[in-house]
Amino acid sequence: MRRKKRISSALLALFLGWFGIHRFYLQQPILGFIYIILFFVGISPILGFIDAISFFVMSDEKFNRRYNKKWFEKGFLHKNRFPAKGKGRKMSRKERRDMKRRAEYKMSNLKKEGLDHFKQYDIEEAMEAFEKALEINSEDIATHFNLACAYAMQENAEKAKIHLATAFQLGFDDFEKVRNHRSLAFLRIQPDWPSFIAKHEQQQASLPSGSEGENIFDRLKQLAELRQQGVLTEEEYKTKKDEVLERKTPSS
Prior knowledge:
With 252 residues, this protein is mostly helical. The chain has helices at 6-16, 21-25, 29-39, 44-57, 60-67, 93-119, 123-136, 141-153, 157-169, 175-180, 185-188, 193-205, 216-228, 234-248. The protein folds into two domains: 6-77, no CATH class; 101-206 and 214-234, Alpha Horseshoe (Serine Threonine Protein Phosphatase 5, Tetratricopeptide repeat). 66% of the residues lie in helices and 0% in strands. Helix 3 (29-39) packs across helix 4, helix 6 (93-119) runs antiparallel to helix 7 (123-136) and helix 8 (141-153) packs antiparallel against helix 9. The radius of gyration is 30 Å and the shape is elongated.
């Protein structure tokens, strides 16, 4: 079943409407034959002209609802509809790349939207944007950290600790920021806070340092991403970067 086009229908009605060609195009053969019969009494040219005007002024939504209804039904498959879902068809490299770019662009906008709401103390709206961002990438460190701050602002210690712990597990290790960030103040007055933070500090300290050629570039890249995502300020980024470089520079 091919998808009909509004402009094509209008042009067929305008130039060949007296033979009902547009009705055959729209898969209405009975009407098409009626137009052919009416041609001999001089009526179909008028009907064709009226149809053409109607198609030209009709919205695409209304046209699709009337003539392409099946095309938009759930479960309808066609090689030109949702190509990635077509039976036996794999996405091309370009399609995968484009999909990834769209996801990254959407996530970037959601994170920015969340931060803007957070700065305006619209905590509910901020959390909604951050949660949507996690649906795209559940391992984004900055989003988990920002959600921890948002839940702490709402005095929801349990959920705040869940997201903060997740950020730690994904590689966030700026414990100084955690100890001083004003949005996490509610967490820091909880009875189990000392054990919570000590546990994650110990886990970070016990992580293997890797080989001599440890991925310093990955660490620097991670710091740059945290700066870009708003977790680290420019000054904090420079400090952490210097620390990484100093640890990796062999002593003379």
